Amino acid sequence: MLQAATKPQARQATMRCASLAGLDALLARRGVSLGQVCAGVGVDPALLSRPEHRLPVRQFVALLEEAARVSGDHSIGLRLGASHGPDSFGPLGDAILHAPDVAGAIANVSRYFFVHQEGACLDLRIEGGKVVISYSIRDAEILEYRQDAELSIAKMLNFARIAIGCRGWTPSAVYFEHPEPRDSSEHRRIFGAPVYFSQPYNALVAPREILAARVNGADLGRLTELHKLAEAQAAGSPRADDLLAGVRQQILRGLRAGGVSIEKVAAALDLSERTLQRRLGESGATFNELVERMRYELSQRYLRQDHLSLTEIGYLLGYSELSAFSRAFRRWAGVSPIEFRKVTAA
Asked: Lowest-pLDDT range, 19-28, 220-229, 298-307?
């Protein structure tokens, strides 16, 4: 039996309820009430009508996943994000709309993202002639957050279009960490670009030239106000660089890239292998235990998605052969993947 690592309790990361604006209307189209969904995850629906109220990120993610499950709309996060404008980010929206150019807007949002959502990471990388703007949740306990990821990337697209003043702008590509859903037509309609799943990160990919694009409505005075607000809030914000969360993220990326090792993870975190082993030990974990636990948790989620074949699931977990995945799963769960799928589908 795999045991969870223990670590000191800390204040949970939170995010603004403004990101749920419009969810009640989307649910109503499916004949589902917001109260019904909230009851499933222990959230008071009255709180969601207050944009500045902060909900624990774990609860926020669970609520969106529950909304998709109960309503049967498995693209509900995507549709919700596509409906949001700059006001859904509150003060952070100003960091986008009042920056001098797209590069400055991204830098501001990356620096002050915690004002809107704590415990998450917005990152920009330049890869040759492309710029990759990625989003991830830095919480070792959150492995499945499809709805939140799709909401966030869809909002990112809207903000890019508004910032550069071109409603028809489309990225070069869109990446998602989660496997491709049964129906991905809505993704391609909303983004207007190739959409790739089971990728190392959730991201928008665009030509590098977009960084120099001027932003409509740049206002340095408003940015100064945002800086003051963000710095005041920073003192009480949970750190987004928790070691277990960072290791989790690198393991996920390694599995989806076809291989994971402690050497690669340590290098990605700018640590020596020995230091990483020592710090994991202080947290009550070993690297191999984390890999095994994540594989087991992910395998259970993937097996509940009946459009994914066992071979595909094994590949997503980093196994080159189905037999290796089947043996590992039987060791974890005491039953074969096929038997597990039958039981959970009943």
From this structure: 220-229
DSSP letter for 333, please.
H
CB environment 74-113: b (16+ within 10 A), e (fewer): bbbbbbbbbbbebebbbbbbbbbbbbebbbbbbbbbeebb
DSSP 8-class letter at 208? G
Phi, psi (5° rounding) for residue 183?
Answer: -125, 115
Instruction: Report the domain count for the chain.
Output: 2
Cα gap 144→160, rounded to integer Å: 26
Report yes or no on 6 lying in a domain: no
Does residue 225 belong to any structural domain of this protein?
Answer: yes
By CB atoms closer than 10 A (0-12, 13-18, 19+), residue 293 is: buried
Q: How confident is the model at residue 5 (pLDDT cuts 50, 70, 90)?
A: very low
In a shared domain, residues 263 and 202? no
Query: What is the tens place of the pLDDT at every residue in 166-218?
Result: 889 999 999 999 999 999 999 999 999 999 998 888 999 999 999 998 887 66
Q: Is the dihedral of CA 72, 19, 81, 117 positive or negative?
A: negative
- Distances in Å between the Cα of 289 and the Cα atoms of 8, 36, 293, 297, 332 are 19, 37, 6, 12, 12
Residue with tokens 């993610």: 61
Question: Domain of 208?
Answer: 73-234
Sign of CA dihedral 258, 262, 265, 267: negative
Per the CB < 8 A criterion, the answer to whether 292 and 310 are in contact is no
The pLDDT tens digits of the residues spanning 8-45 come to 455 788 999 999 999 999 999 999 999 999 999 999 99
